[in-house]
Amino acid sequence: MKEIELALSKPYPSHTMQRWEIINNIIHRYGFKDYLEIGVSDPQWCYDNVICQNKDSVDPGVEFMPNPVKYKMTSDEFFNTIPKDKKWDVIFIDGLHVAKQVIQDIHNALDHLSPNGFILLHDVNPTNVWLQRENYSIDGINRQWNGTVWKAYYALRITRPDLTMCVLDTDWGVGVIRRGTQVLAPADNTFYDYNMFDANRVEYLNLIDGNDLDLFLSMSDKKLPGIK
Predict the structure, then answer these.
(1) Residue 164 main-chain phi, psi, to 5 deg
(2) Is 80 exceeded by the pLDDT of residue 50?
(3) What CA–CA distances, in Å, run from 92 to 23, 100, 122?
(4) Of all helices (H) and strands (E), which one includes residue 207?
(5) Residue 146 has pLDDT above 80, yes or no
(6) Is residue 226 included in any domain, yes or no?
(7) Which of 32, 35, 63, 44 is nearest to 143 (CA)?
(8) Alpha helix (H) residue ranges in the chain
(9) Is the pTM of this model over 0.85?
(10) Residue 175 maps to which CATH number?
């Protein structure tokens, strides 16, 4: 209980950029037209702030009962329903924050990503062990929760040299994934221990300042053919 009380007493980190600002930056920079958001909950939190010609949304409506999304279903049901050749330029994943589901969402998203597109993840950088717990609700109350998104992201950092990845240190950690190349992170955290992650988060996540997004994009462009 002392650990929980300490975590709850700490102020939340400040944010230099919000997730929708990062998404809009990428959409504008590359002239993207097709956006998909998985796990909308209240659309005021992100979806309504995204500026894109074509926008699709997926959410089963567990948290936000009005659920004004296009596809009222789980992400697994959604990806099993859509045509195999359907593609989006930017896919933002903010659904169930449990590693097993997140990695499933990422793999499905990669199958439906345009050649030069981006996958973005929310809540990749939990600041304490309380925030990365498995359970959202505590005694029937939904507390601040990053979940185990970091574990899914780390799994890709140690196994996928064909991707380019970073986490922007803002808005609880916004992960950016695209095709390309990367030097793999050390595969030394066999049990996905939080304390070991905490000591190595910069290397595990390729954690960069939120203000360095443009620099990351410029460098990652060089790893893809056809990008100028």
Answers:
(1) -115, 130
(2) yes
(3) 8, 17, 8
(4) strand 207-209
(5) yes
(6) no
(7) 63
(8) 2-9, 19-30, 75-81, 99-111, 149-157, 194-205, 213-221
(9) yes
(10) 3.40.50.150
